[in-house]
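Fold sample X.
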Amino acid sequence: MTDNQLTSIIIGEAMEIHKSLGPGLLEKVYQECLFYKLKKVGLKVRKEVGVPLYFDNTYLECGFRIDLLVEERIILEIKSVNALHDIHLAQTLTYLKLSECRIGLILNFNNLLMKNGIKRVVNGFENM
């Protein structure tokens, strides 16, 4: 399955969850629902995946946690905030760099329309 096919499935499931639950819930609720839905469609998904920092020839556990990691290559950062800010993008970029993953999706469920809460980050470049 290509990265585009995977992200299409992920976004479709996120939109279904948003359609069912609406905005305004805690991030953890959306994270659990998306974890469940992605596993249900047969994808390999892990949650709260620790990402160590390689510094001075040593791996250090600094508390970095990827919300959801899909098929060991797509990072999902789940948000439920009024607006996405540069810090959310920076967080995802850091996880991409440290994990050597190529694609990240920032999914902000606190929007009237889910499509307005999706940011795709590829190789360090933000895309819509």
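Fold sample Y, listed below.
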Amino acid sequence: MTSNSRFLVILLLSLTGCALFPNWHWEKRGATDGDYALDERDCKVQSYSGTDGTVTKASVRRMHTCLEARGWRKVED
């Protein structure tokens, strides 16, 4: 593989990585990292219980809805 080909492969992988990982995080006024960890854990238990461990779009939506119900909001980085 030539150096130009390697560069293109690395560039494409980098761009793909940016598309796969969102540029946002969860925030809640007055909350600590520990508060988030507890709410995230509880929401995961609610959202993924009874499943075989497979993460689906529907289960992620349930997870997000749970966090939002607890006062968390998505904020762009």
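Sample Y note: The chain has a mean pLDDT of 83.
Also: Helices lie at 3-20, 33-48, 57-69.
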